[in-house]
# Entry
Amino acid sequence: MTRVHDMGGRFGDGPVVPEAEDVKFHADWHPRALAIVLASGSLGTWNIDVSRHARECLAPKDYTAFSYYEKWMGGLAALLVQTGVLTRDELAGLGDAQISDLATKKLTADQVAGVLARGGPTERDSDVAPQFAIGDAVMTRAIAENTMVAGGHTRLPSYAAKARGRILRYHGTHVLPDSNAHGLGEAPEPLYAVIFPAAELWQHPEHPRDEIVLDLWQSYLEAV
Amino acid sequence: MPHDHHDHDHPHTLLPPDPALRVKALETILTEKGLIDPAALDAIIDTYEHKIGPRNGARVVARAWSDPEFLQALRDDATKILDEMGYFGRQGEHMVVVENTAQTHNMVVCTLCSCYPWPLLGIPPGWYKSDAYRARAVREPRAVLADFGVALPEGIAVRVWDSTAEIRYLVLPMRPEGSEGLGEEALMELVTRDSMIGTGLAQAPV
# Structure
């Protein structure tokens, strides 16, 4: 495990506590935090992979202690400073805030429905041809880390590193988060659903026929 | 190789420690800089509080139970047919529907963050975002199901989907016994949010 967010398979977290469907938020400030993060994202200064990585880069003690929306705010504060949208002094509430050059991109109330409805599809044309067919046996990378950037973003969880599975579905060619999170381009490549027997990932699986499926990019995989 | 400088520099520490005040400070500075519009924030909140929620997914499930052609369309290209129903958008751009059967029970998690099909289910419940669910669902899904009071019949395999890319998964629960002859609206009442994540089953008609 390189970062604390990569927690799949971890022991000791205690029970999962079910919750009624009509509970949407757990504090008055939660909806505001959600909305501020989404509205700031629509300025277009960062993409979803950059924002996920910003949350993952929170200090482990903060990541662990923070509620979901606190992580979002922690990530947002980092992004705003990192991309120069705000200075550290402005974030700290010091000095006179001037209207930003980015203000022309501000999300207005009448644009909200359209922006949320459009979302951010990640399927792209790609020159990278699919190397695997459905049913092919594959092995994941031995080390679940970004190969281009030290400490960088990746979507291969540690628990699924160096594991043998088979291709279950082909999703088309999608933006590669390992590249897109670091300003290295979208680098779209084939994306697959890969299925693993639970016994391939865990020493003591609950049931011999249980399986885990992960969506994995072609560069995470090699033929076996 | 480049390093991430924010590993050593956490700007959130410049904000007030109390999270409610942190939100207020962010909203104030971003509004003063002309970067966010409080009215847009209200519109976003209204969308996820009142317009988008698990009844969208319930309609999809009820229709899939009732209409074989619709079910086939979901299998062929869920994103396309859901878009035609108006269920497209942020965090639901690429949809796959996974069907529970007498042999396989499906369950969805995102171990790395909290990816979830927002256009169909709304914003995720607290437990879906919890460390406990993210950590345990892949290793011990049956123990997690027990936390929800669900015990699967002997012989059913569990297939856990870890949402590691931008594909979002909706579980199509098995149609409950005794629901024969019910119309779409009545069937929707049997479809719980948790049954579409895979931590629950559809309810039997009363």
